[in-house]
Known about the structure:
Elements: H1 7-13, E1 20-28, E2 31-38, E3 44-50, E4 56-61, H2 75-86, H3 90-93, E5 95-101, E6 106-111, E7 125-130, E8 136-142, E9 148-149, H4 157-165, E10 169-176, E11 189-199, E12 202-203, E13 211-213, E14 218-220, H5 231-235, E15 242-249, E16 252-258, E17 279-284, E18 290-295, H6 308-322, H7 326-329, E19 330-333, H8 357-366, E20 371-380, E21 383-395, E22 401-405, H9 411-414, H10 425-435, E23 436-446, E24 452-462, E25 469-473, E26 479-481, E27 488-489
Parallel strand pairs: 9-24
Antiparallel strand pairs: 1-2, 2-3, 3-4, 4-8, 5-6, 5-27, 6-7, 7-8, 10-11, 11-13, 11-25, 12-24, 14-19, 15-16, 16-17, 17-18, 18-22, 19-20, 20-21, 21-22, 23-24, 25-26
Amino acid sequence: MIKHMQPVFRALQEWMAQHVQFVKVEEEDAGEIYDILEEDTGEVVGQCILTASNRLSNFSYFCEEKNGELTSNDMPAIAEAFITQFYPLGLQTYQLQSIIDINDLFIVSYGAKEERYGIDVPGIGFSLSISPTGQVIQFSYTHEQAEIRYPSHIITPEEAKEKYASYIDFDLIVQLLDTELYANGDNTYRLLYGLKEYAIDIPASGVEPAVVSVGGQVEPIEMRVPPTKSLHEWIGVTRHHRKIGEQSEEDVLIEKFMHPSIDLPNELDMSEVYEENLITIHTHRVTNLPKVFYNGEPWKGEPIRLTTDFLKQRALDFLFAIFPQASEHFVMQKEEVANALETPLEAFIDDEYEDDFEEWEDELLNEEEETVPFYFQYQVNGVPVDESVTCILVGVLSGRIVSASIEPMEEESLLQICTEPKLSKAAAKKLLLEKLHMEIALAQAYDEDGEPFYEVVYLPSYTETTGHIRAIDAQNGKAYYVNVGDSLFL
């Protein structure tokens, strides 16, 4: 079989662990798309795209990877052997730019530099994803000409740093220093100054940059008497419902309920939360509180949209049912929620479609009910705990609690956190700026017609780390930076 393959297919076979066949499935402007099937089973194990001249432009291999011991130092030899097999002269044009280690997957990039400043042109050249066993599981080659729009004048790195500094702002937060996020984290809760606002990059022309803003306004919650209904009643489980499944997974109890008016599904997937027609509840076995739930039953009531204020009160009642002291520990995030209006659906129908309204109404009510989300931020002594947000979705027609996800709070650990900072916000900013310098680079942008081009920018960089600083310890001034693993940027 292999001896009749095109040369590019025979070459790909050498990089795969089993004998395969190549079956053309589609043809488009990018080229001919082929599924790669295991010869013995017919299972699809990959895909590739060939250009009009039968050159490999994309390759994906869906193999199940085993643990490997190769490091970033081993990646260039593997990548260059693969590139040379399909593009023998490719390494004369494109040079190694970076090796990024993300969750035991190495992304190796080869690209070119522009001539005026000698900086890398991103997105042009070869990109490979290689496992720690040395298996190439993804390859792509992009060689379109890059349009670079140079400004008539560029500011200095010092000016770029000064401009970047003017956009930096912090929020005092409590955060878990997860080692998966922070390279120098320790999996403990700390009081931090987390970056609330910052520029992604600084245009070298000196024009105003795009700014990232994290978080938003919040409002306090007034104390209210917790409702007497049980959690199961809030979630929609009545005495008429019957439990059709129960399963334990680690610290979670999974339950599924069904109303007798609904037909039993052919297959029951206990792992699926958002299952149509069923009520699914995940309960934390230690706290006995719901972790996530979903009421997938169709709404059969009147098609009258409830006001946002009514929906908000329903969400608050449910929050107090879970956390009777919610006013002491939560604030409500202010979201731009359009008023649902207490208006029948007929008001939204043009006269010419009035005859079709009844049929359209029936179809609408059989679909998943529209919901409005409400977000509640957990705090310790008035300081928000990052990523500890409870989200409650309320149906705009029924007013029922359709879904909720409740982030578990390690209250015992959190109550031990000192929430009085020793460091000021100004001192935290000064520490960050001492470690910061600006590097000139190219970034992709789009003009008014939506056409892509490259512009010259300055990117923030921290020479002491392999990642960007995102938080400063509010007690001792230690800088914490995001984890980019065993990564190399040339």
